[in-house]
Design brief:
Elements: E1 2-3, E2 15-23, E3 28-35, H1 39-43, H2 46-53, E4 68-72, E5 86-96, E6 102-109, H3 113-119, E7 124-128, E8 135-140, E9 149-154, H4 163-173, E10 177-182, H5 184-187, E11 197-199, H6 202-207, E12 213-215, H7 220-226, E13 229-235, H8 245-256, H9 277-284, H10 306-310, E14 313-318, E15 328-333, E16 350-354, H11 356-362, H12 371-383, H13 388-404, H14 419-430, H15 435-438, H16 441-448, E17 456-457, E18 460-461, H17 489-492, H18 499-509, H19 515-518, H20 528-539, H21 545-565, H22 578-581, H23 595-616
Parallel strand pairs: 2-7, 8-13
Antiparallel strand pairs: 1-2, 2-3, 4-5, 4-7, 5-6, 8-9, 10-11, 10-13, 11-12, 14-15, 15-16, 17-18
Helix pairs in contact: 2-21, 8-20, 11-13, 12-14, 13-16, 18-23
Length: about 625
């Protein structure tokens, strides 16, 4: 974004952003400079995305007329630490009503692709149509900030390769560039509703290891594949703008402050060790999803604790571009004779990147506790560019179905812990030969006739937090741990179970999506004060925290209207029936979610949203 005004007292409307429209059917590309009409458009990300989506009625996310939208936030590609986010959104092939109507959502990823796209001077791309041949969109700019050139080139040579191999292939052709690609799952979109878009990282390009980041949730890799768009290249020089004192202070808070503490490794300012810590922490209180979100009360999961990997492997905390948090825990083989620990240890070949969600949902939640098998499963999901959350939760539903229905087995009778069949069916699904698994847990459950133990909401699989502890799941627009901050409250906030508390928690949980407008990472935990100071310092504005919160709230309400528009019924705003059926005594948290509780909470929350929608004057085009 940029402004033509020269004073230091700007308004959001003084700024412009560059939007590209790519008609893949005709091969036409147009670039338009648009003025920001309000703070939502200035902040960017999903603030702009939902506005774009109000102009489309979509019954089939794979229809050529359905849009795939790429957005950046106002901090994407700036000196604000973790300002790396790229957003892909549209109408999801996975998140949908039970009747099959696709719903609006987004997925966010880091890496350096978003920064390179911003350096090239592109803020938004709207893709429509379907090219008759596989193509790559190449974005180039000789100068920081553009003007860019956009061109479609042949991508036939990329077909069939893993996401990582596509990225490394493209690196050999385009210097000083970064990439967004689909894997085999996205190429075979007809039978894969959970395909991710992989974004290249600096570490990946320099090391040659499989270390991309992912826009995983919602299956937008399949939407990209349905358009025969295999890759996007962003090639531009890096922005070397001086870091201001205000932004330096924000970056100090991000890298060393309380908000990112749990995501830093233990050697960094008393860090908590990253998301991997959740395996041990949740297991100890009976809240670790195992065997399809059950908690068996066994000690099996100890084998997946980080401490169990320290001796046989080498674990390195490694960062995204210019990030001081270094939340990623990359695992390497330990060279023979190497006795040093952590950062001091020499490393062997790269094995996998462990975050909590993929590790739990691809391993413990499927009854797999062997370290080598866990490494292979997580790496396999990444290579084929899957959303590991949806993939793991769908596999675990199939395993649970087979456990409950011995006379009606599916997927060769795959049961919990069956590593070999998991590998077989992941590969088969990625190749387009197993629609049963690739359709996701809701559609699989509807086909089998039992939704009660499908761990999903509105068609999108739950992250690795028990629904027994989170009545806020139904109101998350884009995944229960990314778009509604209720997923750990029972555990972290005093085990409160009263109705007033949860009504307030849900209504305020939407402000967790702040980073999905501005383009920073949620792991940064940046206080609002530093965000406001940095925006005003960098862009010459004078916005307030309340104005920013209003933009966040208006964005959520617009997304909610898009969700309601496609016809979700009242019963689809609920948790799985299994939560009501019995109490798992292994869960060391209060059992409080009853049908009566959810009915009252639903009434209160829906009225709250309706009142706010009317107050804010939010509506969709007729």
């Amino acid at each position: 974004m940029w402004t033509d005004t020269k004073n230091e007292n700007n308004a959001p409307a003084d700024y412009k952003y560059r939007s590209a429209s790519v008609d893949l059917t005709a091969g036409n590309i147009t670039i338009e400079e648009k003025a920001c009409t309000d703070l939502e458009e200035f902040l960017g990300g999903i603030g702009r995305l939902f506005k774009v989506l109000t102009g489309y009625d979509v019954s089939d996310p794979y229809d050529p007329a359905a849009p795939l939208v790429m957005e950046l936030g106002c901090f994407s590609g700036t000196n604000v630490m973790t300002g790396l986010r790229t957003f892909f959104g549209g109408y999801s092939p996975l998140k949908s009503t039970r009747a099959g109507a696709p719903s609006a959502m987004w997925s966010a990823g880091s890496g350096k692709f978003g920064s390179k796209t911003a350096f090239a001077g592109v803020d938004e791309i709207v893709f429509t149509g379907r090219n008759e041949k596989p193509v790559t969109l190449v974005i180039k700019s000789e100068a920081v900030g553009g003007p860019p050139t956009l061109e479609l080139v042949d991508a036939a040579s990329l077909l069939g390769k893993t996401a990582h191999d596509k990225i490394m292939d493209l690196q050999g052709r385009y210097a000083d560039a970064h990439f967004a690609v689909i894997g085999p799952s996205g190429e075979n979109f007809e039978t894969n509703r959970m395909a991710a878009i992989a974004l290249s990282s600096e570490n990946q390009l320099k090391s040659g290891d499989n270390k991309p980041r992912f826009c995983g949730r919602g299956g937008f890799g399949g939407v990209m594949g349905s358009k025969n768009l295999i890759a996007i290249v962003s090639q531009a020089p890096d922005d070397k703008t001086r870091v201001t004192e205000v932004v330096k202070e924000a970056n100090k808070v991000i890298s060393k402050g309380a908000g990112s503490k749990n995501y830093r490794d233990t050697h960094k300012t008393d860090g908590g060790g990253g998301t991997w810590r959740n395996i041990a922490g949740l297991h100890a209180i009976g809240c670790l999803p195992e065997n399809n979100f059950e908690t068996p009360g066994s000690e099996d999961a100890v084998a997946l604790y980080r401490g169990s990997f320290e001796e046989p492997y080498v674990i390195k905390d490694e960062p995204c571009f210019k990030c001081g948090i270094a939340c990623h825990k990359n695992i390497y083989d330990r060279p023979e004779g190497e006795t040093a620990e952590g950062r001091k240890a020499k490393r062997g070949p790269f094995r996998a990147k462990f975050d909590y969600e993929p590790l739990d949902l691809m391993a413990a939640n499927c009854g797999v506790y062997d370290a080598e098998q866990a490494l292979e499963l997580v790496e396999l999901a990444d290579l084929y560019s899957y959303d590991a959350i949806s993939l793991g939760a769908t596999i675990s539903y199939a395993m649970d179905w087979n456990r409950r229905n011995p006379n009606n087995q599916i997927l060769d009778g795959m049961v919990f812990g069956d590593f070999e069949k998991m590998v077989k069916f992941i590969k088969e699904t990625a190749a387009g030969r197993c629609n049963l698994l690739g359709q996701g847990s809701m559609r699989l459950a509807l086909e089998m006739g039992d939704l009660s133990f499908a761990m999903q909401g509105k068609g999108l699989e739950y992250p690795a937090y028990l629904p027994d502890t989170n009545p806020g799941y139904p109101w998350a627009l884009a995944g229960g741990h990314m778009s509604m901050r209720t997923f750990l409250l029972l555990i972290l906030d005093g085990q409160k179970t009263d109705m007033d508390y949860w009504e307030n928690a849900v209504l305020n949980g939407i402000y967790y999506t702040r980073d999905d407008l501005i383009g920073t990472c949620k792991f940064a935990g940046v206080p609002n004060g530093n965000i406001i100071d940095s925006i005003n310092d960098m862009f010459g504005l004078s916005i307030t925290e309340e104005e920013m919160n209003t933009a966040i709230r208006r964005t959520y309400l617009r997304g909610r209207l898009l969700e309601k528009k496609v016809g979700y019924t009242d019963e689809e705003y609920d948790v799985p029936a299994r939560v009501y059926e019995r109490v798992n005594e292994n869960i060391k948290m209060p059992a409080f979610i009853t049908r009566e509780f959810m009915d009252e909470l639903k009434g209160r929350v829906e009225k709250g949203w309706d009142d706010l929608t009317e107050k804010e004057g939010i509506s969709l085009p007729a």
